[in-house]
Amino acid sequence: METMTKERRRFIKRFVMNGSGCEELRIEQLMNDLRHEVQAVREEQPELSDYQLYDLTFSFHENGMMVQMEFRR
Q1: What sign does the CA torsion over 19, 62, 1, 68 have?
Q2: Is the pTM of this model over 0.70?
Q3: Distance (Å, whole) CA 27 – CA 49
Q4: CA–CA separation, 71 vs 54, rounded Å?
Q5: Which H or E run contains 46?
Q6: How far apart are the C-alpha atoms of 69 and 12, rounded to whole Å?
């Protein structure tokens, strides 16, 4: 997990899917996983209460899929 701060923006990276060899991606499950991760980040970092989720960036790695959440004030 990595957090970076830039002015009024916060970037948080998390793995949302582990590389389990599964080749199917179910959008419903992905959406649920993303909701869970955003909620977990907000609970772990209460200073984000003034921020809105602005964007999601996905990257794929050997050990799974990572999402970068961008929060803005």
Answers
A1: negative
A2: yes
A3: 27
A4: 5
A5: none
A6: 5
